[in-house]
């Protein structure tokens, strides 16, 4: 087959860019971009990503407190030294952490 006999593709597959035509949405994207230093598209992408995450969490059926405990169990508590995990603080230790002294806070 000669090069001139090759079939040339007549269509290209590509994605269309997002074109925001709503003035309020454009204004919000501009404000968020200015506050964060991101591009407008970056601000929109981050907002959509965060909303998607919130929606997926809401659908999981777990209450916020349960999600917080899960986060603590999976990420924070394993990093604590073994001698600290599971120990209770005394009243004196709690007050020292909170900054209470003989003359109060």
Query: What class would the helix/strand composition place it in?
Result: mainly alpha
Counted by DSSP, the helix tally is: 4
Helix content: 40-55%
- Report the mean per-residue pLDDT as an integer: 83
The N- and C-terminal alpha carbons lie at a distance of: 89 Å
Q: Could you describe the 3D structure shown?
A:
The structure is a single chain. The protein contains four helices and no strands. It is mainly α. Helix 1 packs across helix 2 (40-59). The radius of gyration is 27 Å and the shape is elongated.
Tell me briefly what this model is.
The protein is an all-alpha fold. Helices cover 52% and strands 0% of the residues. The model has no long low-confidence stretch (mean pLDDT 83).
In terms of topology, how is this protein built?
Elements: H1 23-36, H2 40-59, H3 64-76, H4 91-98
Helix pairs in contact: 1-2
Write a concise keyword list for the protein shown above:
105 residues, 0% strand, single chain, mainly alpha, 52% helix
